[in-house]
Amino acid sequence: MPEYRITINDKTHTVKIGRIESDSVDVTIGDRSYTVGIESPGGRSNKTPTITRSTAVPNAAASPDRTSPPGGVSGKGEIHAPLPGAILKILVAVGDSVTEGQAVAVMEAMKMENEIEAPVAGKISIISVKEGDTILENALIMSIG
What we know:
CATH 2.40.50.100
């Protein structure tokens, strides 16, 4: 079963999506299982449910530049997510000095743990995420000033 992490009212849940039939889908949230009815607009049966998602970034101005390469550095010392995933560990704090190539965070993406490294030496000036956050590709993780 594919597994997803969703947040509802600031509480994160693990959701497993099971068998999808023409009018229902098996869903497991935590340790409870449900059969959820699916109805497409107009009453037509649809084998694939439509999922409506809220905007991950509250406004367009705050959205990361999607034309930059994954994990790219848009400003000196800015560290961006190479892939969408979850922040497992933050290894530094604001004000800490880091060297180029030093691991500053650990991120899980595509079921693999990835160390995020400092692109330059300097002091951590901003940490934009916290442990447990789910972020998009190219989201700002932290800045080195």
